[in-house]
Amino acid sequence: MAAYDKHRHTWQDEYETHVNWEFEEEELSLIVAFLESAVGQHFLEGRWRMGAYVGSNTEDLVEQVLADAEAVLREGVAHRPAQ
Fold it and tell me: How far apart are CA 75 and CA 39, in angstroms?
């Protein structure tokens, strides 16, 4: 947490600036009302769980994709003409 704490203000400022640029005040009020509702809470919890489960269930797939990409890069380097 200490590594983040020294950057917290900048991070928060960037986030708030973008939120205020992206959404109008009325939209933010509607979004907050939704997120504070029972359905909004279910949405937030479900979104978190979905991200966690999909991330866990696809770890092997991600590793395979990275290995395949590294192999393609190595092959491209091996076949690159000398300069």
Answer: 50
In the chain, how many H helices and how many E strands? 5, 0
- Specify the pTM: 0.53
Q: pLDDT digits over 9-57, tens only?
A: 998 999 888 888 899 999 999 999 999 999 999 999 999 999 889 888 9
Indicate the length of the chain as a whole number: 83
Are residues 50 and 44 in contact, defined by beta-carbon separation less than 8 angstroms? no
Tell me if 19 sits within 8 A of 28, measured CB to CB: yes
- Say which residues have a Cβ less than 8 Å from residue 43's Cβ, sequence separation at least 6: 34, 35
